[in-house]
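Lecture notes, part 5. Sequence design as translation. It can be helpful to think of inverse folding as translation between two languages: the language of shapes and the language of residues. The source text, in structure tokens, appears below.
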């Protein structure tokens, strides 16, 4: 529904401390066909920052691990000094910590080496499209062009208000259709244009009847920015009373609701960018408050009463992995409903839900890969547009769609049965670890041959059965030594070692000290932590 812009090439910089990788990324893909111009290659973060400033770079493709300034530090500097630059990060390390940091730094996408060319091409296409939308300035009247620039680019826009824009007092309104995804997202273009016309006509009719002048631009299909002008000074209460009655329901739809966020009243047009941001920011709080109009300052009042509880990401992922592998669609749906019940009751803003879900999905992807699931490209590409998904129900639909697609892909690609055998074995081992348990006994309980069990156990855990058992028992023993006064031989028996000397030998091989030495170290640490004890 957005209008197209000029075919200006998007400037991209490739950053990697290995020149052969830079060249490969430069020449493997026909960037020109994507509307991208590769303006250079940089081999470290400092050089990248210099080229970004010199070449007016729009898009940066960077490795995460480099000598000197690495990709994460580079992304942090860009976010501070060049926030308009879009970043795609490439890593040879499948580490949730890296992915999580990248997400928090606003990186657009996080790809693993070796890079899949088709996946990289799709990612860049979407980013280029997003950049073009942001760069696009409608070719309408001079005032609308200026207002659109102020709304989209903020104080960086830098252009003075057109001389024809006259007034004594001004106010910015941001209006939006409620429940957009559920009601309007799939509407045909022509029909949606009639909705926008009714929206504009109804809003302007009420405002201009009250002797205010209104200029409006669509900053998004579902975000209308309106500049209100008054040629005389009007008391704040008159402004507020006007807004309370001027936001009509959407005429063609009986239940079509319009939300409004209103900036403070101001007199200097140079403040317009800040007032646009202020009005748009109010839209986030409509999920918490049922009022149709929220005035600047209401957000501070609403935020003051909120203290978000921690959401158990790891526990939710564990339950999701189980439900997905079991192909239990009802359980997956129930888990999503529970998540969003928590978000609603805890009064999460939609942006806060998106951030939590991104972290959850990154961990979910990692857990699935560790379980042997490979080649699954799934999930929301980039952040969901909160002007479209502007309700709890809209975001819930995204999450459920992601997980249903993932469930389908798991079913299509098949499930490694050995994963479930080992998961079952691990539970049995935990239950029986205090006994003198042998690999052959576990294999017998699973009704498989000992050789097959040993093979899949080592393949799944990376450890032999004896090593796995010893590590688990020693960890249990360390906990008992630090937290109880049980004698060492009693602890040895509790964790599954019937021979005391063998226990001491194994303990020392894993920790570098005897059990008594370990207990003494734990006691001295506790004393140092609390000298009054």
């Amino acid at each position: 529904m957005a209008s197209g812009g000029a075919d200006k090439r998007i400037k991209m910089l490739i950053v990697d401390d290995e020149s052969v990788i830079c060249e490969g990324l430069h020449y493997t893909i026909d960037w020109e066909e994507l509307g991208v111009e590769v303006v250079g290659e940089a081999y470290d973060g400092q050089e990248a920052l210099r080229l970004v400033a010199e070449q007016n770079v729009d898009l940066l493709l960077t490795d995460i691990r480099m000598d000197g300034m690495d990709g994460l530090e580079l992304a942090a500097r860009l976010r501070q000094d060049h926030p308009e630059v879009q970043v795609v990060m490439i890593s040879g390390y499948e580490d949730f910590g890296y992915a999580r940091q990248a997400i928090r730094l606003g990186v657009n996408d996080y790809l693993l080496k070796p890079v899949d060319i088709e996946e990289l091409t799709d990612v860049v296409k979407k980013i280029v499209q997003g950049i073009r939308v942001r760069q696009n300035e409608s070719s309408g009247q001079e005032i609308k062009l200026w207002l659109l620039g102020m709304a989209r680019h903020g104080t960086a826009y830098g252009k003075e208000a057109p001389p024809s824009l006259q007034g004594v007092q001004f106010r910015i309104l941001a209006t939006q259709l409620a429940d957009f995804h559920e009601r309007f997202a799939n509407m045909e273009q022509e029909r949606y244009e009639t909705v926008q016309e009714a929206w504009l006509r109804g809003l302007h009719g009420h405002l201009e009847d009250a002797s205010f002048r209104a200029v409006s631009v669509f900053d998004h299909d579902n975000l209308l920015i309106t500049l209100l002008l008054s040629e005389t000074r009007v008391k704040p209460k008159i402004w507020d009373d006007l807004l309370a009655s001027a936001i009509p329901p959407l005429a063609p739809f009986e239940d079509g609701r319009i939300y409004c966020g209103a900036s403070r009243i101001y007199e200097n047009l140079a403040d317009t960018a800040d007032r646009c941001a202020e009005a748009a920011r109010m839209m986030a709080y409509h999920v918490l408050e049922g009022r149709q109009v929220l005035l600047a300052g209401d957000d501070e009042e609403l935020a003051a009463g909120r203290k978000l509880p921690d959401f158990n990401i790891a526990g939710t992922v564990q339950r999701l992995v189980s439900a997905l592998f079991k192909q239990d669609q009802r359980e997956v749906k129930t888990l999503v409903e529970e998540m969003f019940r928590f978000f609603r009751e805890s009064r999460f803003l939609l942006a806060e839900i998106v951030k939590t879900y991104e972290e959850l999905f990154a961990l979910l992807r990692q857990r699935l890969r560790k379980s042997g699931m490979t080649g699954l490209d799934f999930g929301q590409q980039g952040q969901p547009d909160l002007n479209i998904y502007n309700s709890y129900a809209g975001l819930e639909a995204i999450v459920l769609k992601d997980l249903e697609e993932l469930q389908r892909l798991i079913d299509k690609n098949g499930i490694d049965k050995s994963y479930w055998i080992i998961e079952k074995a691990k539970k049995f081992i935990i239950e029986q670890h205090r006994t003198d348990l042998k690999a052959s006994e576990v294999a017998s309980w699973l009704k498989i041959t000992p050789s097959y069990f040993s093979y899949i156990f080592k393949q799944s855990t990376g450890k032999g059965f004896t090593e796995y058992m010893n590590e688990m028992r020693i960890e249990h023993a360390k906990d008992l030594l630090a937290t109880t006064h049980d004698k060492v031989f009693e602890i040895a028996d509790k964790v599954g070692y019937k021979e005391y000397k063998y226990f001491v030998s194994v303990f020392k091989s894993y920790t570098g000290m005897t059990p008594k030495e370990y207990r003494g170290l734990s006691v001295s640490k506790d004393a140092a932590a609390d000298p009054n004890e």
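The translated text above is only one of many valid answers, since several sequences can fold into similar shapes. Residues 142-304 form a domain with the Alpha-Beta Plaits fold (CATH 3.30.70.270).
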